[in-house]
Amino acid sequence: MGMLHGRRVLLGVTGSVAAYKACDFVRRLQEAGCEVRVVMTAAACEFVAPLSFQALSGFPVRSAVFDAQAEAGMDHISLARWAEVIVIAPASANFIARLAHGLADDLLSTLCLARLVQTPLCVAPAMNHGMWLNAATQENVSTLRRRGVFVLGPGQGVQACGEVGEGRLLEIPVLLGALEQCVGPWPLRGRRVVLTAGPTREALDPVRYVGNRSSGRMGYALAQAAACRGAEVVLVSGPCALAVPYGVRHVAVESAAQMREAVLAEVGGCDVFIGAAAVADYRAAAVAAQKLKKGADDWCVSLVRNPDILAEVAALGVGRPFVVGFAAETGRLVELARDKLVRKGLDMIAANDVSEGQGFDVADNALSVLWGDGGVDLPRQSKEALAHALLDVIVARYLAKGC
Ligand code: PMT
Questions:
Q1: pLDDT score at 73
Q2: Pair (278, 159) in one structural domain
Q3: Could you tell which of 202, 237, 326, 332 is best to mutate to test the pocket of ligand 1, judged by most ligand atoms within 8 Å of the CB?
Q4: What is the pTM of this model?
């Protein structure tokens, strides 16, 4: 289950061209298991009709403070108490300014003011880049951050006016991931997690390589799950066609040698290391400088062993992180994984059966998680849900070790 599952989310929509994207956001929140209510400002109603949000959320959309149909005319209090999370997306420069100055001149600003301190308030700015960079907006945003408001984005790119710059509403999947990181609890707050993900490519010549089928999905889901628990996350990744989770630092590499170099540069002072990458065990003995030409019917490639990154991190000695490895096996899963756990000196290993189209480049997975004197089976589920389940196990073992 993701962190948003079962949450009551109040979505505030303010006056911005990006208001139409909030319709899709309602759907994505519902798919994540949220119950959604929508409150719109008058300006937002100029961009998108409230009926759209009513149809999508399945609940009446509120805009006015004094609504004769609302229970006891106290929507600002009842909605503020109902919400477990409040997210303003898109948040206009004007709304951010009103929020920063504590104005309560419509339903949305009033309920934000009336919210309980433990209710996370998240704003996803969307405006012209000039408005975003204006000192007034920047000061307002700093004020909100200082008060514990989560500011998600904005993104960079082409704007509605045709200009290019910072100020776009985050893409909806990214925004959803960012919101998931705001709800807590954050047992890894102040901790640093370094992960590897994806495949490596071992060059044969300038255009050919030896690779594998890893999509990176398992590792990227783990990076998001670690970020949701409050960790500062560094994701060292081989080539993948996935969006990097919000707030996660991405180090792009290609070969096992580059991955090793990046990991060793990042792992100092890190608290937890997770090796989810499918690192090539071998590389070409020599990489041709020119494209190799077709010749004989057979082509023999000489390969040499790559260093084992995971084992190297586990052998770092005093101050080394809590080290979690993966084992990709096509048989004798637990036996071979336990052997890797011991041989590589790991704290924990997550074993997956990768036979018959499982594990690699598919949407779901199942894991047998092992440590010194115990283990737990995590049943087949989406890699995103599985990553949360594995992170819960990692956090429990990591904290139990007194780290
Ligand atoms: O990316 P996806 O499509 O989502 O697929 C996910 C996955 C199947 C790739 C993932 O769940 C997984 O199993 N990752 C590890 C794959 C692997 O290389 O397993 P292994 O049993 O060969 O290696 C054991 C461990 O040593 C792994 O943690 C691996 O990262 C590490 N290793 C291996 C070789 C090497 N030279 N250096 C390493 O660090």
A1: 56
A2: no
A3: 326
A4: 0.94
